[in-house]
Amino acid sequence: MKTINNFLFLTILLGVIMTACTKKEEHNNISDLEKLRNTNNINVPMDSTQAINSITLQKVQDVLDLSTLYLSGNKKTEIDTAIYSKIEKYFQKSDSTTFHGLFKELESLKVKKVKVSNINVFKKINDKDTLDFAKFNVEYIGDKNKSIGNFERSAQYTLVSKATEKNKEFKFYFIKFYSDLTEKDSTSVTVTR
Questions:
Q1: Which of 40, 70, 134, 182 is most solvent-facing, going by the fewest CB within 10 Å?
Q2: In the β-sheet with 43-45, what is the strand arrangement from edge to edge?
Q3: Residue 132, Cα to own-chain centre: how many angstroms?
Q4: What pairing do the DSSP bridges indicate for beta strands 129-141 and 113-126?
Q5: Residue 170 near residue 159, CB atoms below 8 Å
C-alpha cells in the first residue's frame, strides 16, 4: 500500500510540474514583435501628474522599441511598413524629418534595445502657450546585450482633449522626439522607474 501511495504521489507531482513548465513555455513564446503589435495609442484619462509621468514613460519606451524593431528590418517589407505606420501614430504630425535624428542615432550606434528611465516631465511657458516636455535617460544596448551607454534625451508632447460628457480624456502625441531643450522650468515633476 505504501508503494502505491508513493507511486500515486510521484505521478501527481510530475503531472503538476509538467503542466507548470508547459504554461511557462507558452508565456515565454510571445515575441517582442507580437507585444508591440498589440500596443495602441489609446485614450488616456487625466487623473494626476503621476499618471502623466507613467504614460509619458511608456510612450517614449514604445516609440524607441518600435524604432529599433523597424531599423532591424530591411525597411521594404509589409511588416516594416506597418511598424513605421505604428510609430507615426504616436506623433501629432509627422513628415520625412520627424524620425531622422532618432533613426540616425540608433543606426550609427547599432542599437538593438533601449531602456528608458528617470523621466522628468515639465512645462515651459512660451508667450501665451504652455509647452509640455519630458527629459529622460536612455540606455542603449547593442549586440550580445552589451550596454553601449546611457544618454539624456528629451521630447515635446501634447495631450489633445477628447472630452465627453461623462469624463475627460486626452490622447497623447509627441510633437518632437529627441528635441533640444535650452531651459528647464521650476514646475517639473520627476518619476524614477
A1: 182
A2: 43-45, 169-177, 147-161, 129-141, 113-126, 189-191
A3: 18
A4: antiparallel
A5: yes
pLDDT (tens digit, 9 = 90+) per residue, 115-141? Answer: 999 998 888 888 878 889 999 999 999
Cβ-Cβ contacts under 8 Å for 163 (sequence gap 6 or more): 169
The one-letter amino acid code at 40 reads: N
HEC per residue, 155-183? EEEEEEECCCCCCCEEEEEEEEECCCCCC
Contacts of 8 (CB under 8 A, 6+ apart): none
CA 68 to chain centre: 11
CB 141 within 8 A of CB 65: no
Q: Which three cell numbers stand for residue 83?
A: 511598424
Query: From the CA atom positions of the chain, what is the Rg in Å?
Result: 22
Cell of 6: 508513493
Written as nine digits, the cell of 91 is 506623433
Quote the Cα angle for 116-78-109, to 5°: 35
Residue-wise pLDDT tens digits, 26-41:
445 565 556 555 666 6
CA dihedral 36, 48, 116, 32 (to 10 degrees): -10
Alpha helix ranges (H) inside 29-163: 32-37, 49-72, 78-88, 100-108
What is the 8-class DSSP label of residue 29?
A: T
Could you tell me the pTM of the whole model? 0.67
